[in-house]
Design goal:
The complex is a heterotetramer, with two copies of chain A and two copies of chain B. Chain A is mostly helical. Chain A has eight helices and no strands. Chain B is an alpha/beta fold. In chain B, strand 3, helix 3 and strand 4 form a beta-alpha-beta unit. Chain B is globular. The longest helix of chain B has 14 residues. Classes of the chains: A mainly alpha, B alpha/beta. Chains A and C meet through loops of A and helix 4 and helix 5 of C. Bound molecules: adenosine-5'-diphosphate (ADP) (2 copies) and magnesium ion (4 copies). One adenosine-5'-diphosphate (ADP) binds next to helix 2, helix 4, helix 5 and helix 8 of chain D.
Chain lengths: 191, 123, 123, 191
């Protein structure tokens, strides 16, 4: 169950993973994109950190909205409005429920609507969707989902310009989404 | 000033700022606003800049054009946050915007414009 | 440096100069040259500038993209005057050039590139 | 029959007509174009004048080529490469013949090839083509040809972006081509 407190802890852990893997994310974005995903996400989690630091005893909805706005205004690439929409949808839904599975469901729906992509298009959706479908999120589910993007042909995002040549590479947004969910797994009380 | 305005969104600040110079020749009476690059003026797009371009535009009904895919998502977010009536087109960026400018200047209706934009849809 | 280069022709100097900043992200190893505006840097195109962009390009086989119709004629004149092998595409300008950059960087063949450019033809 | 001398005189007369009608040409280009045709042509004939002034006792081919290069490098709009190609083709053909009708024929073919337009597309071709077809060029032929562009729907050039809205306006390039041929009519010995 998400609370204002554990969600902030979740974001701290996500921040550290992005910081540690920034270069790897940009490397993944090089052959099938523009090589900036690591820098984009780093700016994004920096924005989230700054936004959250300014809140005084916030409720969950405010925390989720602040995360969304930090990502939307700092990332600068496609992943900004996508992750941002995911957290905006969670914020809206958080009035009804704090259940993580239900919140991930609405987040996934938001990502799909925002980017017009679906499962199998070689995007972050290919991690969000298996995570949403499994009642219990495990590292195995996350890792398998990330790995599944390797053989996919990209139909959305910059990698889609490469057509067949996009096959054989992991999707960078799938990998960063994997860090988000691993950070969630590592945050006590969220699941 | 024409009833319909145009907003231009590019990943590159120079492209967003330069394009109105071409369009203004065909549409001198059109309000044209642009948003280019990230908040730091790097290559990318910024929802805040796009929202500002929507709000600054003197027209209340706008036609929006963008360069590559990811600009579209920030455009849609900005459109959601604005009260203005903004129509988003998945056409060739420069060619679509030029066509719209020529037709708005000639007082074509939105449906006439959309008819001419249809064959330029590529996204 | 890749075997295939790209040349970009726009009516607007800022657009021609700005666009390589987007393409270089997808194709850092591609020789990109541009020609924008008239000889006086007004809005228009210049055969001489285009010819210079062709000659300055480090690649010997080039893919050429242009914004609106009249650039094409100056491009063709310049191509006639150069010994280089230049392929001219009637695609959406920015979107076509971006696609070509991504594919050249990935070592796609010219025929593969042309296959991906085909649906972007709008002129 | 064109000679080096009367061709230069022809260009002087063309210069004066463009100078006098510069604003009118730009006005014609305003509703269906970008409003620069008068300025473009003025820069063009200025370039031609400067180029010709530098020649010392030139032959016809050199005169025609110099005209072409002046137009190509100075006009800056679609009409530059089009008029330029017309004079380049005349220059090439002038080794075989100095007959104006034959030279106009090759010029017209060059314009068609360069711009991909044909009769009825509402371009300068709709003046060049009737002039080429009539064995004797008269002001009546020229004026009728210009007037015929008014009711045409533009299929090439900037006016084509307007679709149906291009109907009801004269084509600016047709009008400037009319000046070129009127100047020719007024130049003794060319016909
Ligand atoms: N239309 C889309 N739907 C879902 N995810 C997308 C879409 N477009 C891009 N992405 C995700 O965004 C990632 C790229 O993000 P990033 O590099 O930050 O943006 P950009 O491509 O603008 O440089 C991709 O790896 C992919 O996972
Ligand atoms: N493809 C073409 N074929 C023949 N003539 C053309 C073509 N495109 C444009 N023109 C002619 O050029 C004229 C416009 O010239 P100008 O205004 O100098 O160029 P621009 O349209 O680039 O501003 C038109 O009126 C038309 O007669
Ligand atoms: Mg990227
Ligand atoms: Mg990017
Ligand atoms: Mg013009
Ligand atoms: Mg012009």
């Amino acid at each position: 169950m998400l609370t204002a407190e554990n969600t902030q802890e979740w974001m701290n852990k996500f921040y550290l993973k992005i910081e540690q893997n920034k270069d790897y994310l940009s490397e993944l974005d090089t052959p099938i994109g523009d090589g900036d995903h690591g820098n984009n996400m780093m700016r994004g989690v920096e924005g989230v950190k700054q936004g959250l630091a300014q809140l005084q005893d916030p409720d969950l909805k405010t925390v989720l909205k602040t995360i969304a706005m930090g990502l939307i205004s700092k990332v600068g690439g496609a992943s900004g409005p996508l992750y941002g929409t995911a957290f905006l949808e969670m914020a809206k839904k958080s009035s009804d429920t704090q259940d993580i599975n239900q919140l991930i469901d609405v987040a996934l729906a938001g990502i799909k609507k925002r980017g017009g992509a679906t499962e199998g298009d070689k995007t972050m959706i290919d991690v969000w969707s298996p995570v949403a479908q499994n009642d219990t999120i495990t590292q195995q589910v996350i890792d398998d989902a990330i790995a599944s993007t390797k053989d996919m042909l990209a139909r959305k995002g910059r990698a889609s310009y490469l057509g067949e040549r996009s096959i054989g590479h992991l999707d960078p947004g799938a990998v960063s989404s994997g860090y988000l969910f691993t950070a969630l797994l590592e945050t006590e009380g969220t699941l | 000033m024409k009833k319909l305005g145009i907003i231009l969104v590019s990943h590159v600040p120079e492209v967003a700022q330069g394009l109105p110079k071409l369009l203004i020749q065909a549409g001198p009476d059109i309000s044209l606003t642009d948003a280019g690059g990230t908040n730091d003026n790097d290559i990318g797009t910024s929802m805040e800049k796009i929202l500002a371009a929507i709000e600054e535009n003197e027209a209340s009904e706008l036609l929006a054009f963008y360069d590559i895919g990811s600009s579209k998502m920030n455009l849609e977010l900005a459109i959601d946050m604005s009260d203005k009536n903004v129509h988003l087109y998945d056409t060739a960026f420069i060619e679509g915007a030029y066509t719209a400018a020529a037709l708005i200047q000639a007082d074509a209706s939105l449906s006439e414009i959309e008819e001419q934009l249809a064959p330029l849809k590529i996204k």
